[in-house]
Amino acid sequence: MGVPMPWSVETLNAAVDRELLSLPKDVQAAFLRLAERIEAVGLERIGEPHVKHLRGKLWEMRLNGRDGIGRAIYVTAVGRRVVVLHAFVKKTQRTPLAALELAERRALEIKT
């Protein structure tokens, strides 16, 4: 048995790129650090509090910074890919239903 293929972290589309760029700078930095860590050690070695299952195939990357708390909702896809579907600043205790529904709609575009 060979070395497993490394994980890659990618965004679904330009809309998600814009969402990530609209996060506060230190929350963006937290996203980049977590994405690099997933690619370096593998998603299976990252657990709570960094990632958490939401529902169905949706998971979230939990991003904390001095300037706020962000979330990046993702799914895993064929080829050991983490595909970020939606990113936003977290303002409430629970993940907003609209954010989950948007991520689920976007997930339909991916072969998971």
Q: How would you characterize the overall build of this protein?
A:
The chain has 112 residues and is an alpha+beta fold. Helix content is 33%, strand content 32%. The protein has a single domain, classed as RelE-like (YaeB-like fold), CATH 3.30.2310.20. It has 3 helices and 5 strands. A 5-stranded mixed beta sheet has the order 1-5-4-3-2.
SSE blueprint:
Layout: E1 8-11, H1 14-22, H2 25-41, E2 51-55, E3 58-65, E4 68-77, E5 81-89, H3 97-107
Parallel strand pairs: 1-5
Antiparallel strand pairs: 2-3, 3-4, 4-5
Give descriptors for this structure.
112 residues; alpha+beta; YaeB-like fold; 32% strand; 5-stranded mixed beta sheet
Short characterization:
This protein is an alpha+beta fold and 112 residues long.
Helical fraction equals 25-40%
User: Looking at the structure, what is the overall shape?
Assistant: globular
Instruction: Give the low-confidence spans.
Output: none
Which class of secondary structure composition applies to the elements? alpha+beta
Strand arrangement across the biggest beta sheet: 1-5-4-3-2
Report the C-alpha radius of gyration, rounded: 13 Å
CATH top level is Alpha Beta
**N-to-C order of helices and strands:** EHHEEEEH
Can you tell me the number of structural domains?
1
User: At CATH's second level, what is the architecture?
Assistant: 2-Layer Sandwich
Strand count: 5
What is the end-to-end distance? 24 Å
Oligomer: single chain
Overall mean pLDDT: 94
Number of helical elements: 3
What is the CATH superfamily label?
A: RelE-like
- CATH fold node name: YaeB-like fold
Tell me the β content. Answer: 25-35%
Biggest sheet overview? 5 strands, mixed
